[in-house]
Amino acid sequence: MAHLPRPLLSALWLLLLLPLAAAHAQGTLAQTIHFLPVPDRPVTSAPFRVVALASSNLPVTLSATGPAMLDDRRLLTLTGVGQVTLTATQPGNTQYAPAPAATLTFNITQALTTLAWQPAGLTYGMPLSAAGLNATATAVPLVSAAADAATTSSQLNNSQINPGAPLSYSATATGAPFRYEGATLVPSTDSRSQGAVVPVGVEPPAGLVYRVAFTCDCQQFEYVVQSRSSTYWLWVDGAYTSTDFTNISSNYPDINFVRVQFPDKRPRQIKVAIGGSAPFFGVMTVGSDTVSAPQVPIGPRVIIFGDSWTGPTIVQPAIPPAQDGTSGAGYPQVLGEYFNWDWWDTGIGGEGFTEVGTDVNGATFQQRVLTDVCPNAPASIVIMGGVNDNPSTTSQMESALTTTFNHLASCLPDVPIYLYGPQMPSTNIEPAFAAVVPSFSNIHYADMGGQNWIYGDFTSAAVGNAYLYFYGHPTPLGHNYLAEKIADDLLTAFPSLAPTPYAVLAAAPAQGSVSYSAAASTLLPAGSNQVTATFTPSDAVHYAASSLQAAIAVARATTHTALKATTPGGVPTLAITITPQLAGTPTGSVTVSEGSTTLSTLPLSAGAATYAASTLSAGTHTLLISYPGDANFLSSSATTTVNITQPAPDFTLSPPTASLSLVPGAQGNLTLLVTPTPNLAATLTLACSGLPAGATCAFASGSALQVDGTPVQAVATFKLAALNAGLPASTQPARPADRRFPGSATLGTLSAAGLLAFTLRRRRSALYAPALLAFVLLTTGLGACGSSSSPRGIGPTTYTVQLTLTDAANPAITHGTTVTLTVL
Q1: 0.85 exceeded by the pTM?
Q2: Dihedral sign from CA coordinates of 591, 592, 597, 598
């Protein structure tokens, strides 16, 4: 049967309502519109249903502005980032005035990017590398409605894309790579008409719809089902590709290969809803196209149970226009997909809590819950019914309700039950619900008849909503309305049931760049180092940047203690080098020890130190050089053998720390430090040269100094001779001339002598002789009496005196030094 397109259908509804509004006065009852909640969600979220309901229970018209598309099934597909405003209107009728327009605003946000990073550990000295700084980013890909446009065709008994080949992916009851949603499946052994045996497939109990979900990274595939009188409905990336199921004529037992083609190759989420109990045999692909497990998350299993309304039976309205979807979704499917449940429906026409249904089993609700509900262990149950129970009395109805709920309480204790009914007002059925339900704490009940969910004359648009929603059974719009009313009731009573936005596709590698808080080639210290990776997406419009901090563990590096022995100046010396495993410079100090004795602790400079074994005794010494490690390096050690030879007996003579100043006739001391080798025991004699005339020097303690392997301080005493101390003239201390009149005495004497000689030569009178002699004496006396600071009347004289100490028994052992002696 052909159906009108939804936009044309909406226009016809308006044309229908306009003459009614003109013929009848506008109603005066007030009405309001409210939306079911729509939280903010990322741009990669799956399409979702928008629900807005009028308090009059009349249909509302929806529109959307912003980066989203709303189709005629009220499915909103996100197209970008930004704010979306939904607007709902209801024009009223002869009872109700137009409702004030209601709006709901929510935000479509950037999709998150996720960094994954588990950097490998390092050893100190190993620089960061591009491989170590290798965080990877993933993000959920955007869904393109245009790219998901599918074309389908079918062929019996042979593949269109890979003729004659066996199925690429065969159905098995265990699933993988397929996820079976809905009714519990059983193995199928149906075969082709030609007699060839088809691989075992799966099928549900008679009359039930099931769905096969999988991921197809492909540009085309075929799903393969048996050609019974059945229906198929294709779902791609969160939305069905048509308004209705596709009806397939029966060619039993032939096999139907249904080919699905897309504009390009990419991963897509696929569901094939299969009705009429047609067995599913698998999927065919070709080339590089592949099938894997579905990525779309699925909620808890919920069984939607009832009569022919739940079946679902979908009818056209009694008055035009016709509605699309009579082969489409009943309220169970709309409700299940709104909440993203793993739903399945089980409804038998004519059946009720007391009434036997039309199926061959002839059961009532109280009997059928034992076969259709209890064995399948749902997380919750939705039950709609009671409309068929009108022939029963209230008492009979109460008994049947009690039995039904007791069965469920026994097999599924505490499982929530959401109960809706009776579908129409009833004076005997509604009281039974009201009487029984309060006895069961796990049952939530809504009285559909008492709340006028569907009311009015289904043959007239003047009053009520029945003309759109009901004609013996719900119409396509009626099923949508029932689903939305149940969703509204559930969310009002249980806000925690609100559906969570989910992504259609699983995360895949994201395009962009990663930067790090520590650059490649960085030498991290030992220990745990916190490094942050930041991902900047190429598509900064739809995706947000993200950061991730990771701990990079750096182990301390090993070291090697290297030794090199030398003997500068005859002293054994160790050059100690602490070599790193990879790079860097060990710090701290090294310890040199012999046995349990620590000989020296040496600071490292640029990883090296020097040890001079000058204090070791003669003989062989085994030395241990230990490096304890530092924050970045582990310890290491090395041993070496040092041979110390016995030194020749000797001594050293340190010069005195001061000079000596003396006046003639005085004496003074200077202290000398004599340091013998440990093996020197000797008598040292002192000799001095360069002394002033008549001066002497000797040890204060005697004529010689006794040494025996240990340092000793020796006192040398210096004595000066006194002036005119009986020394021969040739050894008298020199008398320098007066510093103010150099040579004045001699000059005066010579002058006087010369004058006397001249006078006598001239044979002058003896009268002048005495006077001349007095003049000479006076002149010479004046010359000897000149002023001076020296006691001797002369200036200080400095002497450099060589002191020599000699081993009396071994004159080869001789050392000397100099002192400064000043004679005042």
Answers
A1: no
A2: negative
